[in-house]
C-alpha cells in the first residue's frame, strides 16, 4: 500500500569504491582511518520492502561519526551511507510488527547504514522496520526528530539496558551521581538528559566552552577533561564525597578511560560504560570497576559482518534481547520526549545530500562541538 507516486530511482550518498582493505585487527572504530572518504551522490534504486518494512520519504538526515568511519574503513561499493533520519511514511510492508504505523505518519529513528545497498538515510527514500522507528511528537520539529537516532539509542543501551535498569526509567536514589565523560558530544547530551530524567545528579566532563550548553541539558557540576588524570578523578571524588559508581564514557578514546575511572569509589561495585572498543589495559586500571562496552548495531537484532571489504569476515553476533530493547526504545521515545523531558541535540543544518561528505570532514577534523549536523533531504 502506498500514499503517492514513488519513483523507481532516487538520489543517495553511496560508497563508490571499496573502503580500503581492512588491515587493522583492532580497534575497529579507532581514529586510525583511511585519509579519504569514498562516497558521492548517485542515482540508485528506491529500496524494496520486506514484510515488516515501511518506506520513508526522508526529510532530514543527521550525521554521526560512524558515517565517515564506515566510508573510510568499512563500506563496500554500492552501500548507502547514513543512519539517522526523519520523514514521512509513504508505503507499508505486507505484515508490519507495529500496526500503529500508517501512511502519512511523521516518523524518525535510525537504520543500519553504510553496509547495505538498500539501507541508509542519506537518501531520498529509506526502508526501516516498522517497530524500530517512532512517531514524532508535536513538541519537536522534524530536524530535531532526526537527532534521535544512533546517539539516542546508544545512550539508552548504555545507561538502561546494559545496567539492567527499568525502561522507561525509574527514579534513582536521591543524591546519586552519574558521571558523563564527553558530555557535550551528541551521545553525551542525550546521556545528561536521560540521567537527569532518571533522577541522578549529573557531573558533566567537557571543555569549558561547552559548560553552559551541558548545564542547559541538566548538568549539576561541570569539569574540564583537559585537567587530565589524576585531577579530574580527584575532583569527581571530592564533589561526590568519595567517588561514584555510575559512569558513561561517551568518547572512549585516548586518556578518557583513565580520567573517568579515577573518579570511581573504591570497591563499591561501580560500572563504567564505554562505546568504542577499549584497549586491554583499560580493564586493568581499576579491577573493582566493571567496564562494559556496547555497540548500537546489535539493537537491529541481526548478526553482521562489520568489515565486508576485508579478506577475513569480522562478524558481530546477534545479542539476545537487544532487538526487543530496540523496539522498547522506539515505543517509549515519544513519551520520553514529552513527559520525561529528553531534549534533542542542538541542530545545525549543514546543507543537502551534496554537502554530506564535506560535513564528514568537519567531524573528522574535530570541528563539530555541541551540535548535530543535519542535512535537508526534501
Ligand atoms: N558503540 C556505539 O554503538 C556508538 C554509538 C554512537 C557513537 N559511538 C562513538 O562515540 C563517539 C562519540 O560520538 P558522538 O556522535 O557523540 O560524537 P560527536 O558529537 O561528534 O562528538 C563531538 C564532541 O566530542 C567532544 N570531545 C572530543 N574529544 C574529546 C575528549 N578527548 N574528551 C572529551 N570530549 C571530547 C567535543 O567536546 P568539547 O568541544 O566540549 O571539547 C565535542 O563536543 C564517536 O567515536 C562514535 O563513533 C559509538
From TrEMBL:
> Domain Enoyl reductase (ER): where?
32-374
Query: What InterPro entries does its record include?
Result: ADH-like_C, ADH-like_N, ER, GroES-like_sf, NAD(P)-bd_dom_sf, Trans-enoyl_RdTase-like
Q: Which SMART domains match?
A: PKS_ER
Top-rank taxon of the source lineage equals Eukaryota
Q: Which CDD domains match?
A: enoyl_reductase_like
Listed GO MF terms: oxidoreductase activity, acting on NAD(P)H
- Name of the protein in question: Enoyl reductase (ER) domain-containing protein
